[in-house]
Design goal:
binds NADP nicotinamide-adenine-dinucleotide phosphate, alpha/beta, 319 residues, 15 strands, 28% strand, 7-stranded mixed sheet, globular, 30% helix
Length: 319
């Protein structure tokens, strides 16, 4: 099979397409023929070698994907060959024509969700769910600022928050991104590339917002307090550097800052997340937005774009 193989950490070009043996299933495992793989920022951090978690080299990147069950082990109960599925990780990496998975990494994909949409599900929707409901305990009627809403996690957060009856303020740095988040149902949309956008938000919401989902905390965390209400909560979803921060900001507002990593979710939290995603797909309020698509061999371009370009939904690789 064809797979992207990383033999040394570094720039996107360290990802090369190679012909490698297809994995064979153990008793508890499934082999999934990948129809689309999702590209997440974390894939780029891992590939660079600067992430807390470093896989053993060589490795095949990718955690998200959707496809068709190709083979099952003798102990697999919930799936048959030919089932449409999406993945929440794999044993062998998803930037490939096939991925080997444990049964708990495989989930049924409803017929009305395409493989490309299925590849955009796990990390973005699970992260947004964990931030909103498991960390910040978002409630009906609250006002949320999704600070960076045009990408994978942001779009997912809009869909979860709208379904939970929150008022959604969304930001994006491009005109296409702002149109996208408006079309997704954001009640108010602002441009985070403008100097005065936080003043604009403050003028519309003089009492501040209850909750902020922060995608770039190193740039925004201190400024977020200009638009946070008393007793407000901020969830740090993304950060790419350090900042000077005055802790007194948290005192005057009795504010709470949550850090979060999806990978810290325990088994019962993960089960709740997966059940909620499956219900959201069935009920129809979750629907990923697929942006750019690249053939598998251009994974390095996809990694460049996910970090360097303005976001528009999810970037997908097609094997
Ligand atoms: P993505 O699809 O690349 O989207 C990035 C988002 O950040 C876009 O909406 C982008 O908006 C926005 N952004 C850029 N500049 C910004 C600024 N100055 N202020 C606010 N937002 C800004 O990435 P993603 O998959 O949504 O992930 C978002 C972040 O969360 C990444 O840093 C990722 O590593 C992190 N993450 C963390 C976890 C976790 O467990 N903690 C899990 C998944 C993702 P424009 O492009 O429109 O400017």
């Amino acid at each position: 099979m064809k797979a992207i193989v990383v033999r040394q950490f570094g720039e996107p070009k360290v990802m090369k397409i190679e012909e490698v043996p297809a994995p064979t299933v153990g008793a508890s495992q499934l082999l999934v023929r990948i129809k689309a793989a999702g590209v997440n920022p974390v894939d780029t951090y891992i590939r660079s070698g600067n992430y807390v978690f470093k896989p053993q080299l060589p490795y095949t990147p990718g955690k998200d994907a959707a496809g068709i069950v190709e083979a099952i082990g003798s102990e697999v109960k919930k799936f048959s060959v030919g089932d449409r599925v999406f993945l929440s990780g794999s044993l062998t990496g998803t930037y490939a024509q096939f991925a080997l998975c444990e049964e708990n990494q495989v989930h049924h994909l409803p017929d009305h969700i395409s493989f490309e949409e299925g590849a955009a599900l796990f990390i973005p929707y699970a992260t947004a769910y964990r931030a909103l409901f498991q960390k910040a305990k978002a409630c009906k009627g609250e006002i949320i600022l999704i600070h960076g809403a045009s990408g994978g996690v942001g779009i997912a957060a809009i869909q979860w928050a709208k379904n939970a009856c929150l008022t959604v303020i969304a930001t994006a740095g491009s005109e296409e991104g702002r149109k996208l988040v408006k079309d997704q149902g954001a009640n108010f949309v602002f441009d985070h590339s403008k100097d005065d956008y936080l003043n604009e938000i403050a003028s519309v919401f003089p009492n501040g917002v209850n909750l902020i989902l922060e995608m770039l905390a190193n740039q925004n965390l201190a400024k977020d307090f200009n638009v946070l209400s008393k007793f407000g909560r901020i969830v740090i979803v993304g950060s790419r550097g350090t900042l000077n921060f005055d802790p007194r900001l948290t005192m005057t507002k009795d504010a709470t800052i949550y850090g979060m990593s999806l990978f810290n979710a325990n088994d019962s939290e993960m089960a709740e997340i997966i059940n909620s995603i499956e219900k959201g797909l069935t009920d129809g309020f979750l629907k990923p937005v697929v942006g750019k698509k690249f053939p598998l061999e251009l994974a390095s371009e996809a990694h460049h774009d996910v970090i360097e370009k303005r976001a528009y939904g999810k970037i997908i690789l097609i094997p």
